[in-house]
Design goal:
- By secondary structure, the protein is of the alpha/beta class.
- Helix content is 68%, strand content 7%.
- The chain has 28 helices and 13 strands.
- Strands 2-1-4-5-6 form a 5-stranded antiparallel beta sheet, with helices on one face.
- The longest helix has 60 residues.
- It is elongated, with a radius of gyration of 63 Å.
Length: 960
């Protein structure tokens, strides 16, 4: 049984405290004095066996235990027990009764749960409870209790003393006094004698009934013996069957095989040791087969380009940011153009020569038409149509004039739609502003400065590779852009959107007035008006003037149509010939900045290509080295540092080559020895006719199993011999066990109980009748005192006979049971002493063993020289080691007979020296493989020592 978890809700100094054990068999709890170790021991005792502690009061807590692979919960709250297995009904028995055959708390405390004071002395070996449980047969605890009860019963009946006050002693004294009194009384009556005869007849009847009762009781006791021996008999049969199963005719060389097996294990341990030493020579984080050895030159080559890599990465990041910023500024500058619409892309290829020619042609036609207007003759009246710069239309339209009229009307509609659109946008903006005169020379200077700044930045980044030039160019560019913004703000009242719309509305209004004036002049020129009759010369001159006007008007209309058709995509529709150079200037300025950006992008693409080549080399290197981190110069530096460490470790590794070869030779020597041992083991296996060492080991295990079952069989036979009746009924006893059925014997037991009850009822009736006879004898007696004495004599005789019979029975039973117990103890005690002797030898560093042969002379030790060391010559530390060995051996014997209980040891190593403390810890760790052991200590040295021993979980005790 193993304790998995302890919980104290309230006990002594503990409040809401819990502890979960480790995986190993030994749980070492370290804590200074007054840390609660002894309180924890008392709490574990109380949880296992119940009761109320004198100092700490009732227990409130629980244990989680594991028994045979099944979990159990043992909880206590005062006298209330909560005992169950999860998922199963509650168990109403105490764990000691349910599992451990009723072992009491006192015996558990003397053997399993020990303080240093409990450990002292050897009187525990003489206690009847310990002898019956640990050296007796199965059920020894019942046998020991029965022996004590029988001895006490016999002593309560009679003592060998003239002054004894036991029951038989008192009855004999009273009967002697009665006879003395009756000898003085001589008178008897006949009727009294008759009644006395009847009284004696009742005694005969009683005897017959008593005989029947005795027969039925013997029959019942025989059945009871069969039922009590039933489980033991079945176990002996099971043991006999397993003996047949594990019995083997093979002659196995156990000692030789185990010796070879141990030497093979030792060889393999040494192989592992030298292999670990060889591995320890290798520097940390170093492998001779590391890819750093293969790709070291690639790392060196790449690290040479590290500075260039970082510069390219930085320049590409800065270049991308710069291009984004310049393009945003370029797009913003388009919104400031007056001749180009920003909502439509600008035409790529424009024939500026034709545009300039058409603008000059339109300007000449316009000037000629205005000059013709200024040369109006005196003969012309106000009704005579004057020149219309935008064409004319007469009520009687010619085909050409009608087309001009429709064109002007469509142009006027477009201008009106643009005005409505601009007014709507201005109204949605909410505020108004008045345009100012644009300082164009300031805009041109700022544009030229921006171009120069871009060229300086490009030269600093790509040609000179100078940070000073680059930073200066950026500062100059920022100042140029600021100057351009200031000029634009001056033009549009602080670069407001409303000011820009007002400026555009002003241009559209001027264009609208021109178109309306042209349309009005065309209609007016075509309208016939009355004019005074001029002279013939004046009329001829007027006619020539009018004809010249029509000719010039046609030239102007044709030039205007050509100009309108030439306007490129994205240009404002209301531009006239005077806006040509502004249109061209804005176009040249935009495309000059665009070409500058494209040139910078080309150089940036070259840088990116160089960066890509370096990063491709790095990615290939990363792949070869098995590195998953992102490719970067920082990661390259880290890899380079690792490569340098690898080179240094490689030098150290090469310097230790001689020592490594020495370790390898040691490993090879032990490897050869392992092969030799394996060959010898193979010969042993071949001799036994087996294929593998596991098969041989299994046969050895079967042999051990055979011996264990043989021991169980012998124990069962001894117990059956103790339970069996005398030789006369022994065959009947075994025949009943072989042929009977437990249920049938239970029915027979119930039947015999009914018969016994019936006979006892008859005896009760007889006793009642006898009482009546005695009463009549008392009434008819001539002498009341004689009558009383006679009755008293008969009663005393009857009571004395019954008491003597009981005493003889008790003495005989006590003698037989004592002999049986002594016989079994003589068989079992040597095994316990052998275990204790081996433990003493381990604890004392093989200096002492128990004197088993001289155990009858008293417990003593034998040293390596064969000298006997008696108890009075033991030191206190040696005595503690012997007492501990005896307790551990007793616990081991109990685990064989019943099961292994947790052993709890509180500060028992305080008088051990360091070597024997280590020996004790190693012994406890070995025993802990099959039995849970709790070791409490206040010594830090023991705690530190235990941490280096396998099989021990070390904990610091804390009550919080």
């Amino acid at each position: 049984m193993n304790i998995k978890r302890i919980r104290f809700d309230e006990f002594g100094p503990y409040r809401d405290w819990s502890f979960t054990t480790g995986d190993n068999g030994v749980q070492l709890m370290y804590g200074p004095n007054e840390s609660g170790k002894t309180s924890l021991l008392e709490g574990m005792r109380t949880l296992l066996f119940g009761g109320t502690h004198k100092a700490y009061g009732p227990m409130t807590g629980a244990l989680d235990v594991d028994r045979n692979g099944e979990s159990y919960y043992i909880g206590r709250k005062g006298k209330q027990l909560d005992f169950y297995s999860p998922g199963n009904p509650a168990i109403h028995e105490e764990p000691a009764q349910h599992w451990w055959h009723g072992i009491d708390k006192k015996t558990y405390n003397r053997i399993f749960a020990l303080t240093l004071d409990d450990l002292q002395g050897l009187d525990v070996l003489q206690e009847v409870e310990v002898r019956s449980r640990f050296f007796g047969a199965e059920g020894g605890e019942h046998l020991g209790g029965a022996v004590k009860d029988v001895e006490k019963g016999a002593t309560d009946l009679l003592v060998a003393s003239s002054n004894g006050k036991r029951r038989i002693n008192v009855l004999m004294d009273e009967l002697k006094e009665n006879r003395q009194k009756l000898s003085q009384l001589a008178e008897h009556e006949a009727q009294y004698v008759e009644l006395q005869t009847v009284f004696h007849s009742t005694e005969q009847t009683e005897m017959e009934l008593q005989n029947q009762l005795k027969e039925w009781k013997e029959y019942r006791d025989g059945i009871d013996v069969v039922l009590r021996a039933w489980d033991t008999y079945r176990r002996s049969e099971e043991a006999r069957m397993h003996m047949q199963q594990y019995n083997s005719e093979l002659a196995l060389s156990r000692d030789e095989f185990l010796r070879l097996d141990e030497e093979i294990k030792r060889a393999r341990d040494n192989m592992q040791l030298w292999q670990e030493k060889e591995a320890a020579l290798m520097p940390a984080n170093f492998s001779p087969d590391s890819p750093f050895g293969t790709y070291g030159q690639d790392i060196e080559d790449l690290i040479q380009q590290g500075a260039k890599w970082e510069q390219l990465r930085r320049e590409c990041e800065e270049g991308d940011a710069y291009i984004r910023k310049v393009r945003e500024q370029l797009e913003f500058s388009r919104t400031l153009h007056s001749a180009w619409r920003h909502d439509e892309p600008m035409a790529e290829d424009i024939n500026w020569f034709d545009g300039e020619r058409l603008a000059s042609r339109l300007r000449t036609a316009k000037e000629q038409l205005l000059h013709w207007q200024d040369r109006k003759p005196a003969e012309a009246t106000d009704e005579v149509p004057t020149a219309n710069l935008e064409g004319a239309s007469l009520p009687n339209f010619s085909e050409e004039e009608f087309a001009k009229k429709e064109y002007l009307e469509r142009e006027l509609d477009r201008i009106l739609m643009d005005i409505e659109r601009v007014e709507a946008r201005r109204n949605s903006s909410g505020s108004d502003a008045q345009p100012t005169i644009l300082p164009k020379w300031l805009q041109r200077i700022s544009g030229i400065g921006a171009v120069i700044a871009v060229l300086v930045v490009l030269a600093g980044l790509l040609v000179l590779e100078s940070a000073l030039y680059t930073i200066g160019g950026f500062i100059f560019l920022i100042l140029s852009m600021g100057l351009f913004w200031y000029a634009t703000w001056r033009l549009h009242n602080g670069n407001s959107e409303v000011s820009k719309l007002n400026y555009e509305l002003q241009i559209l209004s001027s264009r609208k007035s021109d178109v309306e004036h042209q349309l009005e002049a065309l209609i007016k020129a075509a309208t016939p008006t009355a004019s005074p009759v001029p002279s013939l010369e004046g009329a001829a001159h007027l006619e020539r003037w009018i004809q010249e006007g029509h000719t010039l008007q046609g030239i102007y209309d044709e030039a205007l149509a050509a100009w309108q058709n030439w306007l490129p995509r994205g240009a404002a529709k209301s531009l006239d010939e005077d806006d040509f150079f502004g249109l061209k200037h804005e176009y040249d300025q935009y495309h000059e900045q665009l070409r500058t950006i494209e040139g910078y992008e080309k150089r940036l693409a070259e840088h990116k290509e160089g960066l890509r080549i370096i990063e491709d080399q790095a990615m290939a290197l990363w792949y070869n080295l098995g590195i998953e981190a992102p490719v970067s110069p920082t990661e390259l530096k880290r890899i380079y540092n690792q490569y340098k460490n690898f080179q240094q470790n490689k030098i150290v590794w090469e310097q230790k080559e001689a020592q490594r070869k020495s370790f390898r030779n040691e490993y090879d020597n032990w490897h050869r020895k392992e092969k030799e041992l394996l060959l010898r083991q193979q010969e042993l296996l071949h001799k036994a006719g087996m294929e593998s060492s596991n098969e041989y080991r299994q046969h050895l295990i079967d042999e051990d199993q055979y011996k264990q079952w043989q021991t169980i069989y012998k124990q069962s036979q001894v117990q059956l011999d103790l339970l069996a009746p005398d030789a006369e009924n022994k065959d009947l006893f075994y025949r009943r066990l072989r042929e009977g059925n437990k249920d049938n014997w239970l029915d027979e037991l119930a039947h015999s109980e009914r018969e016994i009850a019936s006979i006892e009822d008859k005896l009760a009736t007889l006793y009642e009748r006898r009482g009546q006879i005695v009463e009549a004898m008392r009434t008819l007696g001539s002498d009341q005192e004689q009558h009383q004495m006679l009755q008293e004599r008969e009663a005393l005789r009857s009571e004395l006979e019954s008491a003597l019979e009981d005493w003889a029975t008790q003495v005989l039973i006590s003698h037989c049971m004592d002999k049986a117990q002594q016989s079994y103890e003589q068989e079992k005690q040597p095994h316990m002493l052998e275990l204790a002797s081996s433990y003493v030898e381990r604890l004392t560093g093989e200096r002492y063993t128990l004197d088993i042969l001289g155990i009858n002379k008293g417990v003593a030790l034998i040293n390596n020289n064969g000298e006997r060391l008696e108890l009075k010559f033991w030191s206190s530390g040696l005595a503690d080691q012997v007492y501990l060995a005896l307790r551990l051996a007793l616990a081991k014997v109990f685990s064989y007979q019943v099961e292994s209980l947790p052993i709890i040891l509180d500060d028992i190593l305080v008088r051990f020296d360091e070597n024997r403390q280590r020996s004790a810890l190693e012994l406890l760790a070995e025993l802990g493989k099959n039995q849970q052991i709790w070791l409490f200590t206040c010594q830090r040295s023991v705690y530190d020592m235990a941490q280096s021993i396998m099989g021990i979980d070390c904990h610091r005790l804390s009550r919080s």
